[in-house]
Amino acid sequence: MPVETRQLKSVPAASQTRPVYQIARLSKTYARNQLVALSDVHLTINKGEFVSVVGSSGCGKSTLLKIMAGLMPPTTGRVVLEGEPVVGPRRDIGMMFQQATLLPWKTTIENILLPIEMRDGRAAARDARDRAMDLLTLVGLGDFANVYPGELSGGMAQRASICRMLVSDPAMLLLDEPFSALDELTRDFMNMELQRICSERHATAFLVTHSLAEAVFLSDRILVMKARPGRIVEDIRIDLPRPRTLEMINTPEFGEIVAHIRDLLGREAYS
Amino acid sequence: MTDATQQDTDTDADTIWVEHEALIDRIPRWVAMTLLFIVVVGIWDLATRLEWVSRIILPTPGETLDDLIFVGRNLASGGYMLEALWTTTRTVFYAFAIAIGIGFSLGVLVGETKFGERAVMPYLVAIDTMPKVAFAPLFIAWLGFDIASKVALAAFIATFPIVVATAAGLYAASENERMLFKSIGATRMQTLVRLKLPNGLPYIFTGLKIAAVGVMAGAITGEFLGGGSGFGALIRQSASQLDTPRVFSLILYLSLLGLALYFMVVFLQRRLVFWNKSQTPGGIG
Ligand SMILES: Nc1ncnc2c1ncn2[C@@H]1O[C@H](COP(=O)(O)OP(=O)(O)OP(=O)(O)O)[C@@H](O)[C@H]1O
Ligand SMILES: [Mg+2]
Predict the structure, then answer these.
(1) What ipTM did this prediction achieve?
(2) CB A20 within 8 Å of CB A29
(3) Domain of A137?
(4) Where can this protein be found (chain B) (predicted)?
(5) What percent of chain A lies above the pLDDT cut of 90?
Protein backbone atom coordinates (compact mmCIF):
# COMPACT_ATOMS: atom_id res chain seq x y z
CA MET A 1 0.00 0.00 0.00
CA PRO A 2 1.94 3.05 -1.22
CA VAL A 3 1.57 6.06 1.05
CA GLU A 4 0.24 9.21 -0.47
CA THR A 5 2.25 12.33 -0.05
CA ARG A 6 0.32 14.78 2.02
CA GLN A 7 0.65 18.43 1.13
CA LEU A 8 0.55 20.77 4.08
CA LYS A 9 0.30 23.68 1.71
CA SER A 10 -0.32 23.80 -1.96
CA VAL A 11 2.91 24.47 -3.77
CA PRO A 12 4.13 23.55 -7.23
CA ALA A 13 5.37 19.98 -7.29
CA ALA A 14 9.13 19.63 -7.07
CA SER A 15 10.40 20.30 -10.54
CA GLN A 16 13.29 18.85 -12.54
CA THR A 17 13.91 16.05 -10.06
CA ARG A 18 14.70 12.47 -10.82
CA PRO A 19 14.50 9.54 -8.44
CA VAL A 20 17.80 8.27 -7.03
CA TYR A 21 16.50 5.76 -4.51
CA GLN A 22 13.66 3.46 -5.39
CA ILE A 23 12.45 1.03 -2.79
CA ALA A 24 9.57 -1.30 -3.45
CA ARG A 25 7.78 -4.00 -1.49
CA LEU A 26 10.60 -4.07 1.01
CA SER A 27 10.23 -6.27 4.04
CA LYS A 28 12.61 -7.62 6.62
CA THR A 29 12.09 -10.45 9.05
CA TYR A 30 14.97 -11.12 11.40
CA ALA A 31 15.64 -14.85 11.19
CA ARG A 32 16.97 -15.00 14.72
CA ASN A 33 13.69 -14.17 16.41
CA GLN A 34 11.22 -14.20 13.52
CA LEU A 35 10.61 -10.53 14.20
CA VAL A 36 8.99 -8.61 11.37
CA ALA A 37 11.01 -5.41 11.49
CA LEU A 38 9.77 -4.00 8.18
CA SER A 39 6.78 -4.83 6.10
CA ASP A 40 5.91 -3.67 2.60
CA VAL A 41 7.89 -0.43 2.50
CA HIS A 42 7.63 1.66 -0.65
CA LEU A 43 9.75 4.74 -0.97
CA THR A 44 11.19 6.95 -3.65
CA ILE A 45 13.77 9.62 -2.91
CA ASN A 46 14.61 12.22 -5.50
CA LYS A 47 17.97 13.69 -6.33
CA GLY A 48 18.96 16.38 -3.86
CA GLU A 49 16.08 15.68 -1.56
CA PHE A 50 16.44 15.66 2.21
CA VAL A 51 14.16 13.03 3.72
CA SER A 52 13.76 12.34 7.42
CA VAL A 53 12.19 9.42 9.21
CA VAL A 54 10.56 9.69 12.58
CA GLY A 55 8.86 7.02 14.59
CA SER A 56 8.87 5.37 17.96
CA SER A 57 11.89 3.47 19.19
CA GLY A 58 12.16 -0.01 17.72
CA CYS A 59 9.89 0.64 14.76
CA GLY A 60 12.53 -0.38 12.25
CA LYS A 61 14.25 2.88 11.26
CA SER A 62 17.78 1.58 11.67
CA THR A 63 16.82 -1.63 9.93
CA LEU A 64 15.55 0.31 6.93
CA LEU A 65 18.72 2.38 6.86
CA LYS A 66 21.00 -0.64 7.01
CA ILE A 67 19.16 -2.30 4.14
CA MET A 68 19.35 0.90 2.11
CA ALA A 69 23.09 1.04 2.82
CA GLY A 70 23.57 -2.50 1.57
CA LEU A 71 24.72 -3.70 4.98
CA MET A 72 22.15 -6.44 5.17
CA PRO A 73 19.82 -8.03 2.66
CA PRO A 74 16.08 -7.50 2.83
CA THR A 75 13.84 -10.54 3.15
CA THR A 76 11.79 -9.46 0.16
CA GLY A 77 11.65 -6.46 -2.12
CA ARG A 78 14.23 -4.39 -3.92
CA VAL A 79 16.34 -1.34 -3.34
CA VAL A 80 17.65 0.51 -6.38
CA LEU A 81 20.10 3.40 -6.17
CA GLU A 82 20.96 5.38 -9.32
CA GLY A 83 19.44 2.64 -11.45
CA GLU A 84 21.48 -0.13 -9.88
CA PRO A 85 20.20 -2.57 -7.30
CA VAL A 86 21.89 -2.25 -3.93
CA VAL A 87 23.46 -5.63 -3.20
CA GLY A 88 26.23 -4.57 -0.86
CA PRO A 89 28.04 -1.54 0.51
CA ARG A 90 28.71 1.10 -2.09
CA ARG A 91 31.14 3.90 -2.56
CA ASP A 92 28.45 6.46 -3.37
CA ILE A 93 26.76 5.88 -0.02
CA GLY A 94 28.03 7.59 3.11
CA MET A 95 26.71 6.09 6.29
CA MET A 96 26.67 7.45 9.77
CA PHE A 97 25.64 5.21 12.63
CA GLN A 98 23.85 5.81 15.88
CA GLN A 99 27.14 5.20 17.71
CA ALA A 100 30.25 7.09 16.67
CA THR A 101 32.43 3.95 16.66
CA LEU A 102 35.94 5.33 16.31
CA LEU A 103 38.88 2.94 16.51
CA PRO A 104 40.75 3.63 19.75
CA TRP A 105 44.16 2.79 18.28
CA LYS A 106 43.91 5.39 15.54
CA THR A 107 44.06 9.14 15.94
CA THR A 108 41.02 11.21 15.04
CA ILE A 109 42.33 12.09 11.61
CA GLU A 110 43.38 8.50 10.90
CA ASN A 111 39.87 7.42 11.84
CA ILE A 112 38.43 9.93 9.41
CA LEU A 113 40.68 8.72 6.61
CA LEU A 114 39.78 5.09 7.26
CA PRO A 115 37.20 4.78 4.41
CA ILE A 116 39.74 6.08 1.90
CA GLU A 117 42.49 3.89 3.30
CA MET A 118 40.29 0.81 2.98
CA ARG A 119 39.13 1.49 -0.54
CA ASP A 120 42.13 3.20 -2.13
CA GLY A 121 45.09 2.42 0.10
CA ARG A 122 47.42 4.38 2.33
CA ALA A 123 48.83 6.63 -0.35
CA ALA A 124 45.35 7.90 -1.24
CA ALA A 125 44.65 8.42 2.45
CA ARG A 126 47.79 10.52 2.77
CA ASP A 127 46.73 12.63 -0.18
CA ALA A 128 43.32 13.21 1.38
CA ARG A 129 44.79 14.42 4.66
CA ASP A 130 44.27 18.09 3.90
CA ARG A 131 40.65 17.51 3.03
CA ALA A 132 40.16 15.57 6.25
CA MET A 133 41.80 18.39 8.17
CA ASP A 134 39.43 20.91 6.59
CA LEU A 135 36.47 18.77 7.59
CA LEU A 136 37.73 18.51 11.14
CA THR A 137 38.20 22.25 11.34
CA LEU A 138 34.70 22.70 9.99
CA VAL A 139 33.18 20.74 12.86
CA GLY A 140 35.43 22.42 15.40
CA LEU A 141 37.85 19.56 15.95
CA GLY A 142 40.86 21.11 14.25
CA ASP A 143 42.92 20.93 17.42
CA PHE A 144 42.06 17.31 18.02
CA ALA A 145 43.25 15.78 14.76
CA ASN A 146 46.16 13.93 16.34
CA VAL A 147 44.43 12.93 19.53
CA TYR A 148 43.22 9.40 20.23
CA PRO A 149 39.44 8.96 20.51
CA GLY A 150 39.75 8.04 24.18
CA GLU A 151 40.28 11.74 24.80
CA LEU A 152 37.19 12.89 22.88
CA SER A 153 33.81 13.46 24.45
CA GLY A 154 30.77 11.65 23.08
CA GLY A 155 29.68 14.63 21.02
CA MET A 156 33.17 15.24 19.68
CA ALA A 157 33.39 11.60 18.62
CA GLN A 158 30.12 11.94 16.79
CA ARG A 159 31.31 15.05 15.00
CA ALA A 160 34.43 13.14 13.98
CA SER A 161 32.30 10.36 12.57
CA ILE A 162 30.43 12.92 10.46
CA CYS A 163 33.78 13.86 8.94
CA ARG A 164 34.51 10.19 8.29
CA MET A 165 31.25 9.93 6.37
CA LEU A 166 31.93 13.06 4.33
CA VAL A 167 35.58 12.46 3.49
CA SER A 168 34.86 10.23 0.52
CA ASP A 169 32.36 12.73 -0.84
CA PRO A 170 29.34 10.42 -1.15
CA ALA A 171 26.33 11.52 -3.19
CA MET A 172 23.94 9.76 -0.86
CA LEU A 173 24.05 10.32 2.88
CA LEU A 174 22.39 7.88 5.25
CA LEU A 175 22.31 9.19 8.79
CA ASP A 176 21.11 7.29 11.83
CA GLU A 177 20.46 9.76 14.64
CA PRO A 178 23.79 11.44 14.03
CA PHE A 179 23.36 14.30 16.45
CA SER A 180 21.62 12.65 19.36
CA ALA A 181 24.68 12.98 21.61
CA LEU A 182 25.16 16.69 20.99
CA ASP A 183 24.02 19.60 23.12
CA GLU A 184 21.36 21.77 21.59
CA LEU A 185 23.58 24.62 20.45
CA THR A 186 26.10 22.31 18.79
CA ARG A 187 23.22 20.42 17.30
CA ASP A 188 21.78 23.57 15.74
CA PHE A 189 25.19 24.37 14.37
CA MET A 190 25.63 20.86 12.97
CA ASN A 191 22.19 21.05 11.39
CA MET A 192 23.12 24.28 9.64
CA GLU A 193 26.35 22.68 8.47
CA LEU A 194 24.56 19.58 7.24
CA GLN A 195 22.13 21.72 5.29
CA ARG A 196 24.97 23.68 3.76
CA ILE A 197 26.96 20.54 2.90
CA CYS A 198 23.96 18.89 1.28
CA SER A 199 23.07 21.88 -0.85
CA GLU A 200 26.68 22.56 -1.80
CA ARG A 201 27.34 19.01 -2.89
CA HIS A 202 23.84 18.42 -4.22
CA ALA A 203 23.81 15.43 -1.94
CA THR A 204 20.72 13.46 -1.21
CA ALA A 205 20.16 12.69 2.44
CA PHE A 206 18.12 10.26 4.46
CA LEU A 207 18.04 11.01 8.17
CA VAL A 208 16.68 9.07 11.11
CA THR A 209 15.96 11.32 14.04
CA HIS A 210 13.95 11.55 17.22
CA SER A 211 13.86 15.32 17.14
CA LEU A 212 10.83 16.64 15.29
CA ALA A 213 12.28 20.12 15.16
CA GLU A 214 15.45 18.78 13.58
CA ALA A 215 13.41 16.80 11.05
CA VAL A 216 11.30 19.81 10.09
CA PHE A 217 14.30 22.11 9.98
CA LEU A 218 16.31 19.91 7.61
CA SER A 219 13.79 18.07 5.51
CA ASP A 220 11.93 18.35 2.28
CA ARG A 221 9.91 15.34 3.34
CA ILE A 222 9.26 13.63 6.62
CA LEU A 223 8.24 10.00 6.77
CA VAL A 224 6.36 8.76 9.80
CA MET A 225 6.92 5.12 10.67
CA LYS A 226 4.81 2.84 12.75
CA ALA A 227 5.97 -0.28 14.57
CA ARG A 228 5.02 -3.95 14.53
CA PRO A 229 5.34 -4.42 11.69
CA GLY A 230 7.53 -1.47 10.75
CA ARG A 231 6.02 0.51 7.90
CA ILE A 232 5.71 4.05 6.59
CA VAL A 233 2.32 5.50 7.40
CA GLU A 234 2.74 9.17 6.49
CA ASP A 235 4.78 11.10 3.99
CA ILE A 236 4.72 14.80 4.76
CA ARG A 237 6.14 17.50 2.50
CA ILE A 238 7.77 20.44 4.26
CA ASP A 239 7.60 23.54 2.13
CA LEU A 240 9.50 26.03 4.22
CA PRO A 241 11.77 28.12 1.99
CA ARG A 242 15.45 27.29 1.68
CA PRO A 243 18.00 27.97 2.95
CA ARG A 244 16.44 27.43 6.34
CA THR A 245 17.67 29.64 9.13
CA LEU A 246 17.65 29.12 12.87
CA GLU A 247 15.24 32.04 13.21
CA MET A 248 12.65 30.04 11.32
CA ILE A 249 12.43 27.61 14.20
CA ASN A 250 10.67 30.28 16.21
CA THR A 251 8.09 31.16 13.59
CA PRO A 252 4.48 30.07 14.12
CA GLU A 253 4.54 28.28 10.80
CA PHE A 254 7.41 26.06 11.92
CA GLY A 255 5.68 25.38 15.21
CA GLU A 256 2.52 24.42 13.41
CA ILE A 257 4.26 21.80 11.32
CA VAL A 258 6.03 20.34 14.35
CA ALA A 259 2.74 20.24 16.23
CA HIS A 260 1.04 18.56 13.31
CA ILE A 261 3.64 15.78 13.17
CA ARG A 262 3.62 15.37 16.91
CA ASP A 263 -0.11 14.99 16.70
CA LEU A 264 0.27 12.34 14.02
CA LEU A 265 2.87 10.46 16.01
CA GLY A 266 0.75 10.62 19.11
CA ARG A 267 -2.20 9.29 17.25
CA GLU A 268 -0.07 6.46 15.89
CA ALA A 269 1.17 5.65 19.34
CA TYR A 270 -2.21 5.52 21.01
CA SER A 271 -4.38 4.09 18.28
CA MET B 1 37.11 26.29 43.67
CA THR B 2 36.36 29.65 42.16
CA ASP B 3 32.74 28.86 41.69
CA ALA B 4 29.84 31.29 41.94
CA THR B 5 28.29 29.04 44.55
CA GLN B 6 31.18 29.86 46.81
CA GLN B 7 30.36 33.50 47.29
CA ASP B 8 28.33 33.21 50.50
CA THR B 9 30.68 30.93 52.40
CA ASP B 10 33.65 32.20 54.30
CA THR B 11 35.65 29.00 54.61
CA ASP B 12 39.10 28.57 53.12
CA ALA B 13 38.18 28.26 49.49
CA ASP B 14 41.07 26.03 48.47
CA THR B 15 40.52 22.88 50.43
CA ILE B 16 36.95 21.83 50.76
CA TRP B 17 37.21 18.10 50.55
CA VAL B 18 40.30 15.93 50.72
CA GLU B 19 39.99 12.20 50.49
CA HIS B 20 41.75 10.44 53.32
CA GLU B 21 43.38 7.14 52.54
CA ALA B 22 43.80 4.51 55.19
CA LEU B 23 47.37 4.02 56.41
CA ILE B 24 47.67 0.61 54.75
CA ASP B 25 46.79 2.17 51.40
CA ARG B 26 49.39 4.91 51.76
CA ILE B 27 52.52 2.76 51.98
CA PRO B 28 54.70 3.22 48.89
CA ARG B 29 55.39 0.11 46.88
CA TRP B 30 59.07 -0.41 47.76
CA VAL B 31 58.38 0.02 51.47
CA ALA B 32 55.49 -2.42 51.28
CA MET B 33 57.55 -4.98 49.38
CA THR B 34 60.50 -4.70 51.80
CA LEU B 35 58.20 -4.99 54.79
CA LEU B 36 56.57 -8.14 53.49
CA PHE B 37 59.98 -9.60 52.61
CA ILE B 38 61.32 -8.98 56.10
CA VAL B 39 58.26 -10.53 57.72
CA VAL B 40 58.39 -13.68 55.57
CA VAL B 41 62.16 -14.18 55.96
CA GLY B 42 61.81 -13.51 59.68
CA ILE B 43 59.24 -16.27 60.10
CA TRP B 44 61.39 -18.56 57.96
CA ASP B 45 64.47 -17.81 60.09
CA LEU B 46 62.50 -18.44 63.26
CA ALA B 47 61.16 -21.72 61.94
CA THR B 48 64.66 -23.01 61.25
CA ARG B 49 66.24 -21.64 64.44
CA LEU B 50 63.61 -23.15 66.68
CA GLU B 51 63.81 -26.36 64.62
CA TRP B 52 60.10 -26.44 63.86
CA VAL B 53 61.21 -28.31 60.77
CA SER B 54 64.39 -30.25 60.18
CA ARG B 55 67.37 -28.41 58.64
CA ILE B 56 67.48 -31.00 55.89
CA ILE B 57 63.98 -30.15 54.77
CA LEU B 58 64.21 -26.40 55.22
CA PRO B 59 67.62 -24.67 55.18
CA THR B 60 68.10 -21.41 57.07
CA PRO B 61 67.89 -18.13 55.17
CA GLY B 62 71.61 -17.72 55.81
CA GLU B 63 72.52 -21.04 54.22
CA THR B 64 70.29 -20.25 51.29
CA LEU B 65 71.92 -16.86 50.85
CA ASP B 66 75.39 -18.44 50.92
CA ASP B 67 74.32 -20.88 48.25
CA LEU B 68 72.71 -18.13 46.21
CA ILE B 69 76.05 -16.35 46.19
CA PHE B 70 77.83 -19.55 45.26
CA VAL B 71 75.51 -20.29 42.37
CA GLY B 72 75.66 -16.64 41.34
CA ARG B 73 79.48 -16.84 41.20
CA ASN B 74 79.29 -20.01 39.14
CA LEU B 75 76.88 -18.36 36.73
CA ALA B 76 78.95 -15.21 36.51
CA SER B 77 82.16 -17.08 35.88
CA GLY B 78 80.59 -19.07 33.06
CA GLY B 79 80.60 -22.38 34.94
CA TYR B 80 78.56 -25.48 34.23
CA MET B 81 75.47 -23.86 35.77
CA LEU B 82 75.52 -21.07 33.23
CA GLU B 83 75.56 -23.69 30.53
CA ALA B 84 72.53 -25.36 32.13
CA LEU B 85 70.72 -22.05 32.39
CA TRP B 86 71.52 -21.32 28.77
CA THR B 87 70.09 -24.69 27.74
CA THR B 88 66.87 -24.00 29.61
CA THR B 89 66.69 -20.46 28.26
CA ARG B 90 67.00 -21.73 24.72
CA THR B 91 64.38 -24.38 25.35
CA VAL B 92 61.99 -21.79 26.73
CA PHE B 93 62.46 -19.31 23.89
CA TYR B 94 62.26 -21.90 21.12
CA ALA B 95 59.13 -23.33 22.69
CA PHE B 96 57.56 -19.90 23.14
CA ALA B 97 58.24 -18.99 19.53
CA ILE B 98 56.75 -22.27 18.29
CA ALA B 99 53.72 -21.92 20.59
CA ILE B 100 53.10 -18.38 19.35
CA GLY B 101 53.40 -19.46 15.71
CA ILE B 102 51.12 -22.46 15.98
CA GLY B 103 48.79 -20.99 18.58
CA PHE B 104 48.24 -17.78 16.66
CA SER B 105 47.62 -19.57 13.35
CA LEU B 106 45.15 -21.98 14.90
CA GLY B 107 43.55 -19.10 16.79
CA VAL B 108 42.96 -17.19 13.57
CA LEU B 109 41.60 -20.34 11.93
CA VAL B 110 39.19 -20.91 14.80
CA GLY B 111 38.24 -17.28 15.31
CA GLU B 112 37.89 -16.26 11.70
CA THR B 113 36.51 -19.28 9.82
CA LYS B 114 33.39 -21.30 10.43
CA PHE B 115 35.38 -24.44 9.56
CA GLY B 116 37.86 -23.75 12.31
CA GLU B 117 35.10 -22.99 14.75
CA ARG B 118 33.11 -26.10 13.87
CA ALA B 119 35.81 -28.67 13.16
CA VAL B 120 39.04 -27.60 14.86
CA MET B 121 37.79 -26.11 18.11
CA PRO B 122 36.10 -29.26 19.51
CA TYR B 123 39.32 -31.24 19.10
CA LEU B 124 41.36 -28.46 20.65
CA VAL B 125 39.08 -28.37 23.68
CA ALA B 126 39.29 -32.15 23.98
CA ILE B 127 43.10 -32.13 23.93
CA ASP B 128 43.28 -29.09 26.19
CA THR B 129 41.36 -30.86 28.95
CA MET B 130 43.93 -33.66 29.03
CA PRO B 131 46.81 -33.36 31.51
CA LYS B 132 49.39 -32.33 28.95
CA VAL B 133 52.38 -33.37 31.07
CA ALA B 134 51.27 -36.94 30.46
CA PHE B 135 52.49 -36.53 26.89
CA ALA B 136 56.09 -36.04 28.10
CA PRO B 137 57.15 -39.71 27.79
CA LEU B 138 55.77 -39.69 24.27
CA PHE B 139 57.81 -36.66 23.27
CA ILE B 140 60.92 -38.19 24.82
CA ALA B 141 60.31 -41.43 22.93
CA TRP B 142 59.86 -39.52 19.70
CA LEU B 143 62.51 -36.86 20.02
CA GLY B 144 65.05 -38.32 22.42
CA PHE B 145 66.67 -36.93 25.55
CA ASP B 146 68.00 -33.86 23.83
CA ILE B 147 66.54 -30.35 23.97
CA ALA B 148 63.97 -31.13 21.24
CA SER B 149 61.67 -33.22 23.44
CA LYS B 150 61.61 -30.48 26.10
CA VAL B 151 60.88 -27.82 23.50
CA ALA B 152 58.04 -29.94 22.20
CA LEU B 153 56.45 -30.45 25.62
CA ALA B 154 56.77 -26.77 26.57
CA ALA B 155 55.38 -25.60 23.23
CA PHE B 156 52.56 -28.13 23.48
CA ILE B 157 51.51 -26.77 26.87
CA ALA B 158 51.80 -23.12 25.85
CA THR B 159 49.94 -23.37 22.55
CA PHE B 160 46.44 -23.78 23.92
CA PRO B 161 46.09 -20.55 25.86
CA ILE B 162 47.27 -18.65 22.78
CA VAL B 163 44.74 -20.38 20.51
CA VAL B 164 41.87 -19.68 22.86
CA ALA B 165 42.92 -16.08 23.48
CA THR B 166 43.41 -15.31 19.80
CA ALA B 167 40.05 -16.77 18.84
CA ALA B 168 38.32 -14.89 21.66
CA GLY B 169 40.12 -11.71 20.65
CA LEU B 170 38.90 -11.97 17.07
CA TYR B 171 35.35 -12.46 18.30
CA ALA B 172 35.55 -9.37 20.47
CA ALA B 173 34.95 -6.76 17.76
CA SER B 174 31.53 -5.24 18.31
CA GLU B 175 28.62 -5.39 15.90
CA ASN B 176 28.97 -1.63 15.37
CA GLU B 177 32.62 -1.92 14.41
CA ARG B 178 31.89 -4.75 12.00
CA MET B 179 29.06 -2.74 10.43
CA LEU B 180 31.34 0.26 10.09
CA PHE B 181 33.99 -1.78 8.28
CA LYS B 182 31.38 -3.29 6.05
CA SER B 183 29.97 0.12 5.19
CA ILE B 184 33.35 1.49 4.16
CA GLY B 185 33.86 -1.43 1.82
CA ALA B 186 36.53 -3.29 3.79
CA THR B 187 37.42 -6.75 2.53
CA ARG B 188 37.44 -9.74 4.85
CA MET B 189 41.21 -9.56 5.07
CA GLN B 190 41.12 -5.85 5.86
CA THR B 191 38.51 -6.41 8.52
CA LEU B 192 40.69 -9.11 10.05
CA VAL B 193 43.95 -7.20 9.97
CA ARG B 194 42.74 -3.68 10.57
CA LEU B 195 39.89 -4.29 12.98
CA LYS B 196 39.67 -7.73 14.57
CA LEU B 197 43.37 -8.25 15.28
CA PRO B 198 44.14 -4.88 16.86
CA ASN B 199 40.87 -5.05 18.72
CA GLY B 200 41.75 -8.53 20.01
CA LEU B 201 45.28 -7.64 21.15
CA PRO B 202 44.37 -7.25 24.83
CA TYR B 203 42.97 -10.78 24.78
CA ILE B 204 45.93 -12.14 22.86
CA PHE B 205 48.37 -10.67 25.37
CA THR B 206 46.47 -12.21 28.25
CA GLY B 207 46.90 -15.55 26.47
CA LEU B 208 50.61 -14.86 25.91
CA LYS B 209 51.14 -14.24 29.62
CA ILE B 210 49.50 -17.53 30.51
CA ALA B 211 51.61 -19.17 27.80
CA ALA B 212 54.81 -17.60 29.17
CA VAL B 213 54.12 -19.26 32.51
CA GLY B 214 53.18 -22.53 30.80
CA VAL B 215 56.31 -22.64 28.70
CA MET B 216 58.48 -22.41 31.83
CA ALA B 217 56.55 -25.17 33.53
CA GLY B 218 56.76 -27.33 30.40
CA ALA B 219 60.50 -26.86 29.94
CA ILE B 220 61.32 -27.70 33.56
CA THR B 221 58.96 -30.68 33.63
CA GLY B 222 60.59 -31.94 30.46
CA GLU B 223 64.01 -31.60 32.05
CA PHE B 224 62.86 -33.40 35.19
CA LEU B 225 61.57 -36.32 33.19
CA GLY B 226 63.95 -36.37 30.27
CA GLY B 227 67.23 -35.51 31.94
CA GLY B 228 69.65 -33.64 29.73
CA SER B 229 71.71 -30.64 30.72
CA GLY B 230 69.12 -28.00 31.68
CA PHE B 231 68.39 -26.29 34.97
CA GLY B 232 65.58 -28.75 35.66
CA ALA B 233 68.06 -31.63 35.62
CA LEU B 234 70.30 -29.71 38.06
CA ILE B 235 67.39 -29.18 40.41
CA ARG B 236 66.44 -32.84 40.34
CA GLN B 237 70.03 -33.85 40.95
CA SER B 238 70.41 -31.51 43.94
CA ALA B 239 67.10 -32.64 45.38
CA SER B 240 68.10 -36.29 45.18
CA GLN B 241 71.26 -35.40 47.15
CA LEU B 242 69.08 -33.59 49.74
CA ASP B 243 70.96 -30.39 48.93
CA THR B 244 67.94 -28.21 49.69
CA PRO B 245 69.76 -24.84 49.78
CA ARG B 246 70.90 -25.56 46.23
CA VAL B 247 67.37 -26.41 45.15
CA PHE B 248 66.14 -23.15 46.63
CA SER B 249 68.74 -21.00 44.94
CA LEU B 250 68.39 -22.76 41.60
CA ILE B 251 64.63 -22.12 41.72
CA LEU B 252 65.27 -18.47 42.50
CA TYR B 253 67.57 -18.04 39.51
CA LEU B 254 65.08 -19.92 37.37
CA SER B 255 62.37 -17.53 38.44
CA LEU B 256 64.47 -14.70 37.01
CA LEU B 257 64.17 -16.37 33.63
CA GLY B 258 60.42 -16.68 34.06
CA LEU B 259 60.12 -13.05 35.12
CA ALA B 260 62.21 -11.91 32.17
CA LEU B 261 59.94 -13.76 29.77
CA TYR B 262 56.81 -12.44 31.45
CA PHE B 263 57.94 -8.85 31.46
CA MET B 264 59.01 -9.04 27.86
CA VAL B 265 55.38 -9.82 27.08
CA VAL B 266 54.17 -7.02 29.36
CA PHE B 267 56.58 -4.58 27.75
CA LEU B 268 55.36 -5.50 24.27
CA GLN B 269 51.78 -5.17 25.43
CA ARG B 270 52.40 -1.68 26.76
CA ARG B 271 53.90 -0.66 23.44
CA LEU B 272 51.30 -2.25 21.20
CA VAL B 273 48.10 -1.88 23.20
CA PHE B 274 48.77 1.68 24.29
CA TRP B 275 45.10 2.65 24.07
CA ASN B 276 43.94 0.04 26.53
CA LYS B 277 45.57 0.56 29.89
CA SER B 278 44.28 -2.55 31.53
CA GLN B 279 43.57 -2.14 35.18
CA THR B 280 45.57 -4.84 36.92
CA PRO B 281 46.75 -4.85 40.54
CA GLY B 282 50.15 -3.21 40.81
CA GLY B 283 50.16 -2.32 37.14
CA ILE B 284 52.06 -5.51 36.37
CA GLY B 285 50.40 -7.88 33.98
N1 LIG C 1 20.05 -7.95 14.65
C2 LIG C 1 18.76 -8.08 15.04
N3 LIG C 1 18.24 -9.29 15.29
C4 LIG C 1 16.95 -9.43 15.68
N5 LIG C 1 16.10 -8.41 15.84
C6 LIG C 1 16.55 -7.16 15.63
C7 LIG C 1 17.91 -6.92 15.21
N8 LIG C 1 18.08 -5.59 15.06
C9 LIG C 1 16.90 -5.03 15.37
N10 LIG C 1 15.98 -5.95 15.70
C11 LIG C 1 14.57 -5.70 16.05
O12 LIG C 1 13.97 -5.05 14.96
C13 LIG C 1 13.14 -3.98 15.42
C14 LIG C 1 13.55 -2.71 14.76
O15 LIG C 1 14.84 -2.38 15.19
P16 LIG C 1 15.57 -1.06 14.71
O17 LIG C 1 16.94 -1.06 15.25
O18 LIG C 1 15.42 -0.94 13.25
O19 LIG C 1 14.68 0.07 15.43
P20 LIG C 1 14.82 1.65 15.41
O21 LIG C 1 13.57 2.19 14.81
O22 LIG C 1 16.09 2.06 14.78
O23 LIG C 1 14.84 2.01 16.95
P24 LIG C 1 15.61 3.19 17.71
O25 LIG C 1 14.87 4.44 17.45
O26 LIG C 1 15.53 2.80 19.14
O27 LIG C 1 17.01 3.21 17.20
C28 LIG C 1 13.24 -3.96 16.94
O29 LIG C 1 12.09 -4.53 17.48
C30 LIG C 1 14.46 -4.80 17.24
O31 LIG C 1 14.23 -5.54 18.40
MG1 LIG D 1 17.90 2.91 15.51
Answers:
(1) 0.85
(2) no
(3) 99-169
(4) Cell membrane
(5) 35
**Both A153 and A218 in a single domain?**
no
Query: What strand order describes the sheet that includes A93-96?
Result: A5-7, A231-237, A221-226, A50-55, A204-208, A172-176, A93-96
What is the CA(B170)–ligand 1 centre distance, in A? 25
The chain-wide mean pLDDT, for chain A, equals 86
Residue A180, pLDDT score: 82
Q: Do B183 and A99 touch (CB under 8 A)?
A: no
Mutate to test the interface with B, among A114, A173, A177 (most CBs of B within 10 A): A114
A209 and A190, same structural domain?
A: yes
Best residue among A62, A75, A268 to mutate for probing ligand 1, ranked by most atoms within 8 Å of CB: A62
CA gap B182, A72 in Å, rounded: 10
Query: Could you tell me if A103 and A227 lie in one domain?
Result: no
- pLDDT value of residue B10: 53
Q: For position A231, what pLDDT does the model report?
A: 86
Q: How far is it, in rounded angstroms, from Cα A47 to Cα A20?
A: 5
Residue numbers of chain B with a pLDDT score lower than 70:
1-13, 277-285
CB distance from A66 to chain B under 8 Å? yes
CA separation for the pair A172, A48 (Å, rounded)? 9
Which residue, among B182, B183, B273, would best test binding to A if mutated, counting the most A CBs under 10 Å from its CB? B183
Chain B residues close to A103, C-beta within 8 Å: 177, 195, 198-199
Residue B188 belongs to a domain with what CATH number? 1.10.3720.10
- What pTM does this model have? 0.83
Q: What is the pLDDT of residues A128-160, one digit of tens each?
A: 999 999 999 988 899 999 999 999 988 889 889
- Whether B38 and B97 map to the same domain: the answer is no
pLDDT for the residue A249: 85
Q: What is each CA distance from B42 to A49, A59, B127, in whole angstroms?
A: 82, 70, 44
Number of H helices, E strands in chain B: 13, 0
| CA distance linking residue A131 with residue A164, whole number of Å | 11
Pocket of ligand 1 (CB under 6 A): A 30, 32-33, 35, 37, 57-63
> In sequence order, what are the residues at sequence separation of 6 or more whose Cβ sits closer than 8 angstroms to the Cβ of residue B49?
B60
Is A114–B184 a contact, with Cβ atoms under 8 angstroms apart?
yes
Query: Ligand 1 centroid vs A36 CA: distance in angstroms?
Result: 10
Instruction: Report yes or no: A91 at the B interface, CB cutoff 8 Å.
Output: yes
Domain enclosing residue B59, as ranges: 23-67
Over the stretch A33-78, which tens digit does the pLDDT of each residue have?
888 889 888 999 998 899 999 988 888 999 999 999 999 999 999 9
